[in-house]
Specification:
Length: 119
C-alpha cells in the first residue's frame, strides 16, 4: 500500500508536459477532377504555437513537416497470379475495405527518412 501512495504522490508532483500544437490551413479543401483537369496547385501553410495555457511565448526546436495526401476511399481487390503449367491464372484474392484511391506522402527536405536514421 505504501508503494501505491508513493507512486500517486510522484505523479501528482510531476510537472505538466509541454506540448506544441500545429495550426494549419490549406488553400483548397478539395480538388474536382473533370474532363478538362490539367493539374491543381495547393498551398499548405501554418505555424507551431505553444499549447493553450502554457507559459511559453515561443516554441523552438527542429520541427519536421510531413504532408499526406489521400484520395477518396473505396473497396479494392488484389489478385495473385500463379504460373500453372505455363498458363498464368488468378489463384488468390484479397479484398481491402476503405482503401484510398490515391496516397502520396511528402516530407520536408531536411527530414530524416526514418526515426532511427541520422543526418
Amino acid at each position: 500500500m505504501k508503494w501505491w501512495l508513493a507512486l500517486m504522490l510522484a505523479f501528482s508532483l510531476a510537472g505538466t508536459a509541454r506540448a506544441e500544437r500545429l495550426v494549419s490551413q490549406l488553400s483548397n479543401d478539395s480538388v474536382e477532377i473533370t474532363s478538362s483537369f490539367d493539374g491543381e496547385r495547393m498551398n499548405f501553410f501554418g505555424t507551431i504555437m505553444p499549447d493553450a495555457g502554457s507559459e511559453q511565448k515561443f516554441v523552438t526546436g527542429p520541427f519536421h513537416v510531413v504532408v499526406v495526401v489521400l484520395g477518396p476511399t473505396q473497396n479494392r481487390v488484389a489478385r495473385q497470379m500463379t504460373n500453372n503449367f505455363g498458363v498464368w491464372l488468378n489463384t488468390d484474392r484479397v479484398e481491402f475495405d476503405n482503401f484510398p484511391s490515391y496516397f502520396q506522402c511528402y516530407r520536408a527536405p531536411g527530414c530524416a527518412t526514418s526515426p532511427t536514421s541520422r543526418r
